[in-house]
Structures are given as C-alpha cells and as structure tokens.
Amino acid sequence: MANKLLGRELIEDIAAFTRKLRATFDARVRERNMTLPRARVFFNLNKKDGINQRELADRLELETPTLVRILDAMEGQGYVERRVAGSDRRAKEIYMTDAGRVVAAEVEDLAEEVRGQIIAGIPESDLRTTLNVIRAMQANLAAVRGQ
C-alpha cells in the first residue's frame, strides 16, 4: 500500500514539475519574443540540423500540419530553410540559417541558465540517482506502451 501511495505522489509531483517547468521556460522565451514550440524546434535542430520534417514532428510529438505552421513562421523570419530530401520531392529536411543558429544559441543559453537554477544546491549524487530512477521509469513506460 505504501508503494502505491508513494508511486502516486511521485507521478503527480513529476507531472506538476513538468507543467511548471514548461510554463517557466515558456515565459522566459516569450520575454525574447519567441514561442515555446519554436524554441523546441531550435533544440532539436541543434541536435540534428537537416532533420527530416516527419522525424522532427515525431520528436516534438506534433501533428505534421502544426509543425508546418511553425516552420512556415520560422522560415519567414529567416531562421530555417526547407530543402528537398534526395529524390523524394515531398520529403523535406530542415536546416538552420546563420540567423537561426544565433537564436538557437540564445535559446540554449537560456535553457542552461534555467537548468542551473533548478538544480542549484542539489548534490550530484542525488541528481545521478534521480536520473537513474527517471530512466528506469521511462523504460517501464515504454514497456507499458508496447514499444
């Protein structure tokens, strides 16, 4: 019984933390005239510039039409460009422009600052234990989802 209650409290706290983290980061990027979805695109392009549009939509857990609207706006601002992927003219790869790289670096700096503030004062051993627990929970979740 104690495990059930502890598990419930843990999951509820993680969910609440995630919502508050998202809201905090959203407020910070809005101060810089950006949206959270665009910031998330920059995060992913920093990891893999030239990513296929469908793969990017999957990573962001967005429907393709939603991502297309975000990319249209970012392309209009000169931050990204779409290129035809190989011989399939329908498939597009997304690349950052030089202006996009500047903004992406600003977003990364902001994220680093927020992360630093959030983990301030927490011993490294606690952070490592927490990371191990969360990774184990992610593996369990993937099994529940059948992945």
Strand content: 5-15%
Which whole number gives the mean pLDDT?
Answer: 92
Q: What are the segments in which pLDDT stays under 50 over at least 5 consecutive residues?
A: none
Taken in chain order, the helices and strands follow as HHEHHEEHH
> Count of helices?
6
Radius of gyration of CA atoms, rounded to a whole number: 18 Å
Tell me the helix content: over 70%
Provide the CATH topology. Answer: Arc Repressor Mutant, subunit A
Largest sheet: 3 strands, antiparallel
Structural class: mainly alpha
CATH superfamily: Winged helix-like DNA-binding domain superfamily/Winged helix DNA-binding domain
For the record, the CATH class is Mainly Alpha
Amino- and carboxy-terminal Cα gap? 29 Å
Number of strands: 3
Strand order of the largest sheet: 1-3-2
**CATH architecture descriptor:** Orthogonal Bundle
Number of domains: 1
The best one-word shape is globular
Task: Give the topology.
Blueprint: H1 2-30, H2 36-47, E1 51-52, H3 53-60, H4 64-76, E2 80-85, E3 88-96, H5 98-119, H6 124-145
Antiparallel strand pairs: 1-3, 2-3
Précis, in short:
With 147 residues, the protein is mostly helical.
Describe the model.
- The protein is mainly alpha-helical and 147 residues long.
- The chain has one domain: Orthogonal Bundle (Arc Repressor Mutant, subunit A).
- The protein is built from six helices and three strands; from the N terminus they run H-H-E-H-H-E-E-H-H.
- It has a three-stranded antiparallel sheet.
- Helix 2 packs across helix 5.
- The protein starts with a helix and ends with a helix.
- The mean pLDDT is 92.
